[in-house]
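User: Some background: our group keeps a shared notebook of sequences we're curious about, and every so often someone picks one and asks for a predicted structure to add to the entry. Today it's my turn. The entry only has the sequence so far, pasted here. Could you supply the structure so I can complete it?
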Amino acid sequence: MKIASENSVLIKDGRSLDLLPHVDTIVFDKTGTLTKEQPAVGTIRCCGNYGENEVLLYAAAAESKQTHPVAMAIINEAEARGLNIPVFDDSDYRAGYGIKVRIGGETVYVGSHRFMEASEISIPQEISDMQEKCHVKGHSLVITAIREKVAGAIELIPALRSETAEVIRTLQNLPQIKDMYIISGDHETPTRFLAQQLGIEHYFAGILPEDKAEIVKKLREEGKFVCYVGDGINDALAMKNSNLSVSLRGASNIATDTARIVLMDQGLRHLPFVFGLAHDFQKTAI
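Assistant: Of course. Here's the predicted structure to add to the notebook entry:
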């Protein structure tokens, strides 16, 4: 345990070192785990008479009480532009889809394309075209609607953690690791783009938070010994369903509380070290 702590790894109980050598499948959450916690705001496309700052301001106001990476990216961009974010009156948050709020008597919707469709809001062709371009590039799109009409959309550009590619290569070279998976709420194209970029064969795209746990359960039913690596509040159930779970420091409280191992440097750099430590521990025990 001392060696682990000296390398910025918190192992909550010694059983984790016994379990790690049995792991043959690693499942990674995408956003905030493989990629940096926060994407960057790219192009802001406006509809009607709305301007960039107005679209951004309404989105930031709606997301102002959220702490997930997309919300923080939008809020930070609004603050960087010196915008005064208003307070909303009431809200209806739907995890994995979007949020509906009341701001100054206006009903504001902020979220994905499917959230707008579920809210029966028509998507202008220019926004649909933008979404297609974003998907090809592996970017995400957050749409803002006011009074049931789309006001604009915000492009969000993900960035891999600097260590991700090297960590994945190292883990893939471990004889015990047979499969790796990426789970993402993003659509097919950006998820496939990332998987190809990292050389990971398997991925699940367009996954709602409650479905992550079911995927892990099915993998275990197939006989796989699963280590789940995630950082969000939406990962807690999947972590509980896995054989072993790893979280990053700075992740949601429920994720770090649930995970058996926490990488304290807020990145993936020490994940291969954890597997190596378990291997050495096993040899010493024998």
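Suggested note for the entry: Residues 2-36+161-285 form a domain with the Rossmann fold fold (CATH 3.40.50.1000). The first strand starts at residue 9 and ends at 11.
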